[in-house]
Structures are given as C-alpha cells and as structure tokens.
Automatic annotation (TrEMBL):
<dbReference type="InterPro" id="IPR005288">
    <property type="entry name" value="NadB"/>
</dbReference>
<dbReference type="InterPro" id="IPR036188">
    <property type="entry name" value="FAD/NAD-bd_sf"/>
</dbReference>
<dbReference type="InterPro" id="IPR027477">
    <property type="entry name" value="Succ_DH/fumarate_Rdtase_cat_sf"/>
</dbReference>
<dbReference type="InterPro" id="IPR037099">
    <property type="entry name" value="Fum_R/Succ_DH_flav-like_C_sf"/>
</dbReference>
<comment type="similarity">
    <text>Belongs to the FAD-dependent oxidoreductase 2 family. NadB subfamily.</text>
</comment>
<dbReference type="Pfam" id="PF00890">
    <property type="entry name" value="FAD_binding_2"/>
</dbReference>
<keyword id="KW-0560">Oxidoreductase</keyword>
<dbReference type="InterPro" id="IPR003953">
    <property type="entry name" value="FAD-dep_OxRdtase_2_FAD-bd"/>
</dbReference>
<keyword id="KW-0274">FAD</keyword>
<comment type="pathway">
    <text>Cofactor biosynthesis; NAD(+) biosynthesis; iminoaspartate from L-aspartate (oxidase route): step 1/1.</text>
</comment>
<dbReference type="InterPro" id="IPR015939">
    <property type="entry name" value="Fum_Rdtase/Succ_DH_flav-like_C"/>
</dbReference>
<dbReference type="Pfam" id="PF02910">
    <property type="entry name" value="Succ_DH_flav_C"/>
</dbReference>
<protein>
    <recommendedName>
        <fullName>L-aspartate oxidase</fullName>
        <ecNumber>1.4.3.16</ecNumber>
    </recommendedName>
</protein>
<feature type="domain" description="FAD-dependent oxidoreductase 2 FAD-binding">
    <location>
        <begin position="7"/>
        <end position="374"/>
    </location>
</feature>
<dbReference type="GO" id="GO:0034628">
    <property type="term" value="P:'de novo' NAD+ biosynthetic process from L-aspartate"/>
</dbReference>
<feature type="domain" description="Fumarate reductase/succinate dehydrogenase flavoprotein-like C-terminal">
    <location>
        <begin position="452"/>
        <end position="479"/>
    </location>
</feature>
<dbReference type="GO" id="GO:0008734">
    <property type="term" value="F:L-aspartate oxidase activity"/>
</dbReference>
Length: 499
C-alpha cells in the first residue's frame, strides 16, 4: 500500500511524540502490542530531567550530562536536548501529564544520581512513565491524522537501488505481511534489554530496529554501551522490577548481608554514577555477600504513598520493604548505543529516521545521566516527527529486504543467559569470544533473526573496545584510554573514530 506520511515503528514515548508532532501529515504508528504495553516508556519510575528550578539552568544540566557520558557526549546534540528541557516538560504537561507540583504550582523536582541538583520532574512518586504515556495515548487516540496498527510488527525495510529507505514490511496478526511504501520510515523501537537474561525492560525489546537498520546499511554507533541498573529487585521475576534511584535520593542505602555499606558510609556514596554502583552490587553478589537496598529508615512507612509501584512489586513477592532490605542485582536497563542519528532523527540513510532509545544521538555518550532518556524520547521525538513529515514521496522501483523471523524460544533463552554472563556488567575477551561463538552457532542453526544480529553488534563492539568507559567495563582492560573514540559499524565494517 502507499501511505502519504511518516510510517512510525514503535508506540513508546518517542514514537507517539513523533506521531503527534507530524500533524497534519497522515501518520501510521505500528505497535506489536496494545499501546501502553511492551514499551519501557510506560515503566519509567523516576521522571523527566530538565532545568526547572530557579537555581538550575540548561548549561548546568548540559555539564552534568557531559560528565556522566565519559568523554563521548556529542556537545551539540546534548545542548539541543538540555535547552529544550523546560519546553518539553511543559508540552507533556499541556497534553495532560500530571507532574507533581509544589505549593506555588511549579514542577516539584527530585535528585537522582550524578545530577548536581534536584531536576527530575516526577508523577505520583514513581509513576512518571505510565502517567506521561497515558496522556500521549489519549491525544493519539483523539488525533485524526494518526492511525494506530496494534499487534503489528516491523519485519523488513524496503529500499530503492540508491539505498534510500522507501517503506517497510509490517506483519499483522495471523502472519499477514503488508508492504507499506512511505516517504519516511521512523524507527522508534526502543532498547535491547530483552537480549539479556537479567533486565528491567520489557523482554520484547530486542534491538530489532537497530538490527534491521544495520542490515539496510545504516550506521550503528557505540552499540557496546549498555547501562546496567544497580537496583533491579531480585525476587525471581522476569523482567526484574526496578527499585528507582529516587529511593537512594531519599537516603536508602546499599548494604550487604551483614549490613556493611557496599560503597562506604559517606553521604551520597550510593548516588555515584550508575556504572560504579552497578559494579559494586555485582562484586558483592559475586563474592557471596549479597546486595540489598535498605529503605527501612529513609523511607519506612512512607513507602506505599511515595513509591507505590516499587512497594507493590515488593509486596507481590512477599517482601515488605518497610521492614526488610530489598535484595537487588544489576540488570540491563538502557541502551546508549544504537542507530546513529541527529536530534531531528536523520540517520545515514535517506528516508530512514531513528529516535528514542533505538537511536544513538550522542546525548548519552558512554553512560546515560538518569532521567535524560524520557526527555530525549519526547524532545527529539517531536523534532523527528516534524522532520519526517516534511519528506516528499519518491517514485521508482524498490527492493524488499529479507523478511525476518524470530529466534526460537529455547535459543533466545540461551542467548539471554550468555549475554548477561559475557556481555554484562563485567566483560573480558574470553567471555566475549565465547559469546560470539554461541551467536555463530545459533546463526548457523537459525539464520539471522534480528535478536541475533543485535546481540552480535553489541558483542563485537564490546570485544573491539579494549578499555573501560562508562557502561562498558573490561576486567582485562580496566583503564580508560586518554583519547575517547566512537565505534561506528556498517555492514561488514567496524571502525573506531575519534570522538
Ligand atoms: C523500569 C524502567 C524505568 C525507567 N525509568 C526512567 C526514568 O525514570 N526516566 C527516564 O528518563 N528513563 C527511564 N527509563 C528509560 C526510558 O523509559 C526509555 O529509555 C524510554 O522510555 C524509551 O522510549 P522509546 O519510545 O524509545 O522506547 P519504548 O518506550 O521502549 O517503546 C518502544 C516501542 O517499539 C515497539 N517495538 C519494538 N520492536 C518492534 C518491532 N519489531 N516492530 C514494531 N514495534 C516494535 C515496542 O513494542 C514499543 O512500542 C526507564 C526504563 C525502564 C525499563
């Protein structure tokens, strides 16, 4: 079929922000599940980072973003992001996102790790993601220019002889494939946490957008940078419920089984950068000491009202966090790397746009600053929607890419376990080589489903980066190189390029 406007793949905050902002161009949004399901956006607990308080300024937010990103933040992209912070939060509020307010009606802000001041706008304590996405879903449902295809999935990209992306193959329920030709395809497919055995994201997020973009010839940037969250709740649930960082912002402490602090007893020790805290949790567990988040004193009886989602997750597992420390582990949480894109979503391929977690715009560098990703999804989502809507249809012959299928469940489970073990919080050449051998074996048996392609991109880039930086820690190369370099991958090419 021919469609006259952007074809947007993904119904999270990035995809829906793009869809709303593409008006009046007609938009199709493709989502594999009903909106609000199978999207990290709906699970976000902390909130949206922006310079909102009177002591704050976009330049200070930019400085913290660059410090967290460990030498690889793109200054221009991060400046655009932080400059648009307040306007983006106000736009979300204007759509009905019920941000917490102070007595004067200003946005209430809270402190999260590696921010030099309180700057995270929250909703109902830990309910930001669901509340914000619900507001967007209501606007999308009411928008006459948007058609939503639920229970539909991206299965291939369509290109012409020049490589320009001209559309996509979408699988509908029952296996019906529809070839859609459109002036612009926007990938907003989210992260890759579902490639890891221990993850806080929906398991359905497997880096499929990144894999199909790579197969089409698009440039992939720094895929080795995965952020592991230090406080995934370890109660045998897959994916793992999250204990938001805001709990540590309120004074909850990380301890071992004997009550010893994992990161020392200094104030703020537990609010160090996420990679540092994740490694401390990982090390304590590996040493058999266990790792626990103790919120008994700092939050105590306020738990049900201040952190209702975390409280409910704990109680469901039979654990009352008011009286018992919460067992925690580090788990894959956010993908900094992805499809190379600019703040307007442009990728290296004409006609193809990428935004949100599947994109790598350089704003997170090697390590995302907490709560910058919802801001990116909404701010760059709006920019990308406007840019994609400006594209005019192109005529001429097209080539439909190979239609992909899924990795069988047992093989996917094997892949997930290996990714957490060998491309997880602590990596080395032996483990990564073992992981790549497994991917080779699975590929020989099952072809190249997107999950395997995405896993290979992460593993190969992690093996090639012989240093430790941000979310990527190599126990065989624990030092950080003096000159930061990016990893850039295209089909059959892996290059390192000065930042
Ligand atoms: C538990 C948790 C808490 C978080 N807390 C915060 C926070 O407080 N602040 C913050 O800034 N960030 C937070 N994050 C990160 C943030 O939620 C995400 O980075 C952000 O929501 C990503 O938005 P997105 O639209 O790019 O992706 P998503 O919201 O994940 O949406 C991706 C969409 O693409 C769809 N999709 C995937 N594959 C396909 C396919 N093949 N075909 C069609 N559609 C597909 C998915 O189903 C989904 O609809 C948190 C993440 C998690 C998991």
């Amino acid at each position: 079929m021919h469609h006259d406007g952007p074809l947007i793949i993904g119904g999270g905050l990035a995809g829906l922000s793009a869809a709303l902002s593409a008006a009046p161009a007609p938009v199709i949004v493709v989502s594999p599940a009903p909106l609000l399901q199978a999207a990290s956006s709906a699970w976000a607990q902390g909130g949206v980072a922006a310079a909102l308080s009177k002591d704050d300024a976009p330049a200070l937010h930019l400085k913290d973003t660059e410090a967290a990103g460990a030498g690889l933040v793109d200054h221009h992209a991060a400046e655009v992001l932080t400059d648009e912070g307040r306007a983006t939060v106000e736009w979300l509020a204007s759509l009905g996102a019920p941000f917490d307010r102070d007595a004067a009606g200003e946005f209430s802000v809270s402190l999260e790790a590696a921010h030099s001041m309180a700057r995270v706008a929250r909703v109902g304590g830990d309910g930001a993601g669901r509340a914000i996405l619900s507001a967007l879903v209501a606007s999308v449902r009411a928008a006459s220019h948007i058609t939503v295809w639920e229970d539909a999935r991206l299965r291939a990209l369509i290109q012409d002889g020049t490589g320009r992306v001209r559309g996509a193959v979408i699988e509908h329920p029952g296996g019906r494939m529809v070839e859609v030709l459109a002036p612009a395809v926007v990938l907003a497919t989210g992260g890759a946490g579902g490639l890891f055995g221990a993850t806080t994201t929906p398991v359905a997020l497997k880096g499929e957008g990144m894999a199909l973009a790579w197969a089409a010839g698009a440039e992939i940037l720094d895929p080795e940078f995965v952020q592991f969250h230090p406080t995934a709740i370890d109660v045998g649930v897959d994916p793992m419920p999250l204990a938001t960082e805001a709990l540590r912002g309120e004074g909850a402490r990380l301890i071992d089984r004997d009550g010893r602090f994992l990161l020392g007893d200094a104030d703020g020790a537990d609010l160090k950068a996420r990679d540092v805290v994740a490694r401390a949790v990982h090390a304590a567990r590996a040493a058999g000491r266990g790792a626990f988040l103790d919120a008994r004193t700092a939050v105590g009886d306020h738990f049900p009202t201040e952190f209702p989602a975390v409280f409910a997750a704990c109680m469901q597992a039979g654990l009352d966090p008011r009286v018992t420390p919460i067992p925690v582990a580090a788990a894959a949480h956010y993908h900094m790397g992805g499809i190379a894109a600019d703040p307007d979503g442009r990728t290296s391929l004409e006609g193809l746009y990428a935004v949100g977690e599947c994109a790598a715009t350089g704003v997170h560098g090697a390590n995302r600053l907490a709560s910058n990703s919802l801001l990116e999804a909404a701010a760059f989502g709006r920019r990308t929607g406007r840019e994609a809507a400006r594209q005019a249809a192109v005529k001429g012959p097209v080539v439909v890419g190979a239609v992909v299928s899924d990795l069988p469940q047992a093989a996917h489970a094997e892949l997930r376990a290996a990714m957490s073990a060998d491309a997880g919080v602590v990596r080395d050449a032996i483990g990564l080589t073992r992981l790549i051998a497994l991917i080779d074996r699975l590929e020989a048996a099952h072809g190249a489903p997107p999950a395997l392609v995405a896993a290979r991109l992460i593993a190969e880039a992690a093996l090639a980066r012989r240093e430790s930086r941000g979310g990527h820690y190599r126990s065989d190369y624990p030092g950080t190189a003096t000159t930061p370099v990016h990893t850039r991958l295209r089909r059959d090419i892996l290059q390192t390029v000065a930042a």
